[in-house]
Amino acid sequence: MNLSTEGSSVNITHNISISDLLGSVDLTKFYRYLGSLTTPQCNEAVVWTVFQEPIMVHRDLIQRFPAKTSLSNVYRPTQQLHGRKVYGSPAVTPPSGHSWCYDDDCDYRPDHWHLLPGSYCGGVRQSPIDIVAKEVTVDPELKAFSFKHFDDKQAIDYITNTGHTVKCVLKKGVVEVSGGGLDHTYSTLQFHFHWGDTSETSHGSEHAVNSAQYTMEMHIVSQRKDLTLDQAKMAPDGLAVLAFFIEAEGGASKGPEIKSGSDFGSGSGSQYWTKLTSYLSAVSNTSSQATVHDGISIDDLLGQVDRTQYYRYNGSLTTPTCNEAVVWTVFKNPIKVDKELLKLFPANAGFHQVRRPLQAMHGRIVRATSAAWAPGPAVMLLLFVCLSVCHLGEGVLSVQGLSSQPQDKRQKLQCDLKLHTHKMNPSVALFVLLALVQGARCASDTINWCYHVENCSYPHWPTIAPNFCSGSRQSPIDIQSGSAVGDAALGPFTFTNFNSRSALLKMTNTGKTVKVNLNSGVQISGGGLADSYDSLQFHLHWGNGNSVPGSEHTVNGKRFAMELHIVNSKVSYFGNTTQAVLDSTGLAALGFLIEASSDNSTGLPASWQTLTSYLVNITQSGQSVNITASLSIDDLLNGVDLSQYYRYLGSLTTPTCNEAVVWTVFKQPIKVSKNLIDLLSNTVRVGDGNSQRMTEVYRGVQKTLPVTTQTSSGAVRTCFSMGLMCFSWLLGMP
User: Which domain covers residue 425, as residue numbers?
Assistant: First the structure.
């Protein structure tokens, strides 16, 4: 058997499988990164998976490769990462010496977690945080949750000691969470606890409210149903964690030996907490676990906590690797449990202070349900002043601007609270008004806007949303090509995963447009942008069929049939557009004009035929459909010269019109058959099946803004030639 010459080959006649060659390697432990072929032409088209465990092969067998082939050093040297991330599967174990803990008794204490391999613990949206109640933003979109099988008394599978906490693992696919302002349905995986020590004054919660912490904290962890756990950890909203404070309350106690809740105080569901803590002695050793036989549901443990009052923010896991993939819900009201039961957690687990220190906000916003909002001293003072100066006869008292929201770029809350009085005594009116204001429900930055109905169409947006829609850098605009200034910094873009056939996740009828959400990992950079941006979604603007054009941007006064907008957010915001819109360049939008094909062809290009085939599934507002076809963004942009574009600084083209967008409008339009363009205005509706069809969904052009474009190579050549001519003339002078 000879393979010593180039091009030689031999047939393999033995029965050998790939599994035979891999042997006992644990295929659940691997690293992942985006790279290239390791031989010329080194195409950067490879998703690399490198397994942690090596294949064990005898030294003599390894030596046969160079001996039999006459080849040696058959490898490419390692290359630079250039900012790329290397991810590890959940089963990957850090190399020896890379243990983490909450105290100083290990290699990596909390302030060193960011040094762990593959760690995100040094990021800008880390958890836990201190929630400052007076700075929260009331959000009416934070409505009631839907808790599926939280009342199932057999949902808990087993309880285990992880060495860092006590965790209750749930039976797979039983418990779910949705609603509550979440954009997805989440499968609940487990819940676990954070605590301090056994002292009477112990404070072991991770989150704090106004710097105050509770005795313990319970975290209910769920992952998006449409993602694997690996994918969920990489998505900005891949995980949803419900956090419940636990407050210790006094009561007669008989200590750890007590097995009946009847001996404890009046805490929420004390008998169920007694049942749960009775298992702690069985899991006193790390990695030990015990099957939960008693009937205990999550509802039993939560008791009478008001689940309509909660805070919401985007953060991270609170243990390494601290993935910034969590939509946090922190409930305002605590669970009350007998203090002696709570002491059983540190007493049996054998470790104390299992909580991460509070992390910096880095400009993040905490939102709250209106039920969780309470007026602060400033609001009370405002009310008192109003009552002092207003005439409380047979009139109406109107108080504007009762808001706990900071007075910055964010849309200001406006509440109208009217008190009808009939010769009411001012002091009585004060008490009535204070009582009313606690439950007052406010309009928020969710603006009631539209494209066509009188009083809410785009000419009225500056009145409806005055903070930005009446600003000085509004979009869209009419681009005058002759006025665009050349900018040599506007080079080529780098489009990451625009060629991925699984990038398109879900299509939704929002009631205002058709939106397609993108999977994580799609990005843009270059093109004169100062940062890299995550591609979040794309949506469309159109008129009424191909006969009534509906692009938002126009070029030299010409409006095109449609326009495609790909919305991107700075990678440093991890998909948090609430933060991104506070940054003047926080968003980057790619605008692609769409032109009807000049011929009578139908169903072209095929990529747009595939995309529009999903419209029949979202005819009504709020309907969504998963995109299962093999379709990439590149397919939809086929034929467009992505090196030629206009650039300007503008705004969102829908309320609240935040002036936070770096606009790129490509010069060459996408050509689409007329029948496919017609589908949008003929298929989708603004509401239910009886509502009007969605047509002319675009904002009119705004005031002209400075526009730049690529420096013309022809102009450069002309200047160079003129320079040579002048130089020659100078040389020829006497």
Answer: 374-438
Task: Tally Cβ neighbours within 10 Å of residue 250.
Answer: 12
Asked if residue 3 is part of any domain, the answer here is: no
Q: At 428, give phi and psi (nearest 5°).
A: -65, -40
CB 564 within 8 A of CB 535: no
Task: Answer yes or no: do 690 and 587 share one domain.
Answer: yes
C-alpha triplet 676, 678, 683: angle, nearest 5°: 100
**Which is it for strands 166-170 and 478-479: parallel, antiparallel or unpaired?**
unpaired
Specify if 667 maps to a domain. Answer: yes
Nearest alpha carbon to residue 660 among 576, 540, 557:
576
Domain count, the chain: 4
Q: Which helix (H) or strand (E) holds 214?
A: none
Q: CATH number of the domain that 571 lies in?
A: 3.10.200.10
The rounded distance, in Å, linking the Cα atoms of 625 and 245 is 37
Do residues 226 and 193 share a domain? yes
If you ran DSSP here, which 8-state letter would residue 518 be given?
Answer: E
Task: Give the span between the Cα atoms of 199 and 469, in whole angstroms.
Answer: 55
For residue 718, what are the contacts with CB-CB under 8 A and spacing of at least 6?
none
Q: How far, in Å, CA of 263 to CA of 278, rounded?
A: 14
Q: Based on the fold, state whether residues 35 and 137 are members of the same structural domain.
A: no
Strand 145-148 relative to strand 367-368, pairing? unpaired
Burial environment of residue 494 by CB neighbours within 10 A (0 to 12, 13 to 18, 19 or more): middle
CB 697 within 8 A of CB 552: no
Cβ(110)–Cβ(122) below 8 Å: no
Please state, in angstroms and rounded to a whole number, the distance separating the CA atoms of residues 730 and 590.
Answer: 47
430-483: pLDDT as tens digits: 444 444 443 333 333 456 899 988 788 899 999 888 889 999 999 999 999 999
> What is the secondary structure of 140-199 as a DSSP string?
TT---EEEETTT-TT-EEEEEE-SS-EEEEEPTTT-EEEETT-SS-EEEEEEEEEE--SS
- Listing DSSP states for 332-400 in one string gives SSPEEEEHHHHHHHHHHH------PPP---TT---EE-GGG----HHHHHHHHHHHHHS--SSSEEEE-
* Residues 645 and 680 grouped into a single domain: yes
Q: Please tell me whether residues 316 and 241 are part of one structural domain.
A: yes
CB atoms within 10 A of CB 49: 11
Q: CA-CA distance, 340 to 265, in Å (whole number)?
A: 10
Q: Does a structural domain hold residue 102?
A: no
Interval 26-76: pLDDT, tens: 898 888 999 999 999 999 999 999 998 899 888 888 888 888 888 889 999
- Whether residue 491 lies inside any domain: the answer is yes
For 600-685, strand residue ranges (E) read 624-626, 645-650, 661-672
- CB neighbour burial string for 434-449, b if at least 16 within 10 angstroms, e if fewer: eeebeebebebbebeb
Kindly give the pairing relationship between strand 708-710 and strand 485-487.
parallel
